[in-house]
Amino acid sequence: MSEQLYNPDYLAETQRLLEELKYSTYTPFLSISGRMVEVGCGTGDDAINIAKATAGNGLEVFGLDASEVMIQEANSRQSKANDKGIPEDQMTNVRFMIGNASHLPFEDGALSGLRAERLVQHLPNPEEVFAEFYRTLVAGSPLVVVETDWNSISFYNGDPRVTQRLRNYLTERNVKNGNAAATLIHDLQAAGFSDVAVRLWPLASRSLEQCVQLLRFDVVLTAMQDAGELTADEAQTLMNALRVADDRGQFICSINLIVVSAKR
């Protein structure tokens, strides 16, 4: 996914819209101690939130991301949280580092928990990453993985044939592993995880502006034109239909997220 699509502003808006989902995925980590890691932590909001919620529990939270820009932003947000008067003991249990999900900088069985949100879709080698998750987690510890089911995106206005091509592009070309949500249960079981449970989290928006902010499909339509997957007229016709529907109060877009929890 390009920097234009995946940047700190995008992640901040997503954090706001998915707040209820996110907090529900923190639960398995609220009663553990030791060390946990948020892999693919982005701007660090989830790691910071978990650190706040577990202050005093003996849990050290690590946020790891491959992007130096994201880690710089995460460190900045941690500093701002301190400046906002959050008690110091609530922010001393979180730190951020640059790292690779395929080679986690932790010893075997060093972690008491691991969380990854919308990470696996970007991985060309998910089986290697799940093996790393399994290696670094201690037996019985919780794992939570959240993924976007790009194949579930639906619009109820405009040409459905163009929407299908958009859906195909999002799943097959926009990210490296667009079918991650569909294979997540199998992949975790194949890696050796047990007690695998799944929840479907449907997300719907009646606002075109909100949908564009969250899914950035306007940028994707441009990328499809550049790739020869869509003509300019087809893209413009779809956007016009969505704008008209939005003006009339008839716009709706939906997409599913999958939350899979498991035990090492």
Automatic annotation (TrEMBL):
Give start and end of each Methyltransferase domain: 37-139
User: Which SUPFAM superfamilies does its entry note?
Assistant: S-adenosyl-L-methionine-dependent methyltransferases
What InterPro entries would the database entry show? Answer: Methyltransf_25, SAM-dependent_MTases_sf
Keywords, A to Z?
Methyltransferase, Transferase, Ubiquinone
Q: Which GO terms describe its molecular function?
A: methyltransferase activity
- One Gene Ontology term from the biological process aspect of the record: methylation
Q: What is this protein called?
A: Ubiquinone/menaquinone biosynthesis C-methylase UbiE
